[in-house]
Design brief:
This protein has 146 residues and is an alpha/beta fold. It has one domain: Rossmann fold (3-Layer(aba) Sandwich). The protein is 36% helix and 37% strand. It contains 4 helices and 9 strands, in the order βββββαββαβαβα. The strands form 2 sheets. The chain has a 7-stranded mixed sheet with strand order 1-2-3-4-6-8-9, with helices on both faces. β1 and β2 form a beta hairpin. The radius of gyration is 15 Å and the shape is globular. The chain starts with a strand and ends in a 5-residue tail after the last helix. The relative contact order is 0.15. The N terminus and C terminus are likely disordered.
Length: 146
């Protein structure tokens, strides 16, 4: 289910989009920054990854985007799903946010083994993760001045 919400953030009125499914939700929290949350104890398969990527592309209007992955919940992501996430073409970065040592180890495994095609980092603090994504979006969108 896709719906629009309007909220106030940093003195700007932003229209956000939310997609909810039985396994995950995506929320456009800022232009080019999409928050991904999964249901606790979920099993994500390759088709779920394809669905997430398709919804993220729709939210971004088909342009480049970043993912803020809320990895505070536990679950299982299949090898095929991790490979699908790693090769996502329009994603310019993923920030994985978790305080769990187990999820940090899994995040490092994803980054080092699956070698995502975009920048990827693990954070304990969501604000720091969003700040990092903002910087990457700014660098990618605003051309350098001479």
């Amino acid at each position: 289910m896709l719906r629009g919400i309007i909220y106030l953030q940093e003195q700007l009125l932003i229209s956000a989009m939310i997609f909810d499914s039985k396994k995950f939700s995506l929320q456009l929290i800022e232009p080019k920054i999409i928050k991904l949350s999964v249901v606790d104890g979920i099993e994500l398969e390759q088709q779920d990854a394809k669905d997430m990527i398709a919804e993220a592309l729709e939210m971004s209007g088909g342009s480049e985007y970043t993912i803020l992955f809320d990895a505070t919940k536990s679950g299982n992501i299949s090898y095929e799903a991790r490979e699908e996430f790693a090769k996502s073409k329009k994603r310019i970065a993923v920030a994985i946010v978790t305080n769990s040592l187990a999820n940090k180890l899994l995040g490092n495994f994803f980054i080092n083994f699956h070698k995502p095609s975009s920048s990827a980092r693990i954070f304990s603090d969501e604000k720091m993760a969003v700040d990092w994504l903002r910087e990457l979006v700014k660098e990618k969108i605003i051309p350098p001045t001479n």
